[in-house]
Write a structure and sequence with these properties.
Blueprint: E1 6-10, H1 14-26, E2 30-34, H2 37-47, E3 51-54, H3 63-71, E4 81-85, H4 87-90, H5 98-102, E5 108-111, H6 116-130
Parallel strand pairs: 1-2, 1-3, 3-4, 4-5
Amino acid sequence: MSPEAKILVIDDDPDVVEALKIILKMESYRVISAFDGEEGLEKVKKESPDLIILDLLLPKGDGDVICRELKGHPRYTDIPILVLTAVAEKVNAKLFPEHKIRSLPADDYADKPIQPQDLVDRVKKLLARSRPKEGDKI
């Protein structure tokens, strides 16, 4: 059996990070966290996560910029990114319209709050798509 996936949660809300950690650790995922954009990018480079859960409104680098930067870099483009945000509640929709969120090169999008089973299902689906299956040539 392969080692469990390492998931990086980038969100500036400690309560959200803790809740996501609890849910993901119950599924045996290894969870690391970052609380702003700069720390998030550093952790991506240092930890090489298997999947990133990314908020959009972050101090020191918004999530949309981070998403585009990672997906535009050959070393990180294959890391699945799940954008998990409550941006519609935080900002005027005219400043950060949904079509702008949907135009990001992320692999999946979900609104906060997210139901635990929905989060787990999305994570499993993204990881299944990104990992080679047994018998696949590498």
